[in-house]
Amino acid sequence: MPPTVHDYSVEEWLPYRLWRLSRAAGDRLEAYYSRTFGLDGSDWRTLAILANYAPISAKALAEALDINQVQMTRALTRLQGLGLLSRRTDKNDKRKVVLQLNRKGNEIYQKIAPRAQAIEDQCFSGFSAGERSQFIAFLNRLEQQALS
């Protein structure tokens, strides 16, 4: 017999639970980087993508962050204003701007990334290595299903 409306609980809804987990972990990390470096969540996500995929175009960066061009322009202006970003024109396509972290941006990323990893490791502290691996595999499948 299918559940009734009264059987539904938002607290048990997977997207809600994942959002709460993301907020709890993200808030812990943000407390550090906002206090220490004056960054917000958007700044951190942009730094992390740049650290892993640079050199990258602004368009590809926006796609990786799943944000629109206006949001991308604001994020890049902010990071450049904080002195964390390097922009250059692509050698092969003069219309394209290529982005990467400069030395200061990379140093900040190198200070934040281990804390992010430590928070994730703490989240998985009650899991065996196999359970952690299995959870990641399930999460990958859930993402594929949700995005298809």
Structurally, the number of domains stands at 1
Largest sheet: 3 strands, antiparallel
Q: Class, according to the CATH hierarchy?
A: Mainly Alpha
- Low-confidence segments, given as residue ranges, are none
Order of helices and strands: HHEHHEEHH
Distance between the termini: 28 Å
CATH superfamily: Winged helix-like DNA-binding domain superfamily/Winged helix DNA-binding domain
List the helices and strands and how they pair.
Layout: H1 14-37, H2 41-53, E1 56-57, H3 58-65, H4 69-81, E2 85-89, E3 97-101, H5 103-123, H6 129-147
Helix pairs in contact: 1-5, 2-4, 2-5, 3-4
Structural descriptors:
mainly alpha, 148 residues, globular, three-stranded antiparallel beta sheet
Structural account:
This protein has 148 residues and is mainly alpha-helical. The protein has one domain (5-147): Winged helix-like DNA-binding domain superfamily/Winged helix DNA-binding domain (Arc Repressor Mutant, subunit A). 66% of the residues lie in helices and 8% in strands. It contains six helices and three strands. It has helices spanning 14-37, 41-53, 58-65, 69-81, 103-123, 129-147, and strands spanning 56-57, 85-89, 97-101. Strands 1-3-2 form a three-stranded antiparallel β-sheet. Helix 1 (14-37) packs across helix 5 (103-123), helix 2 (41-53) crosses helix 5 and helix 3 packs across helix 4 (69-81). The chain is globular and about 60 Å long. The chain starts with 13 loop residues before the first helix and ends with a helix.
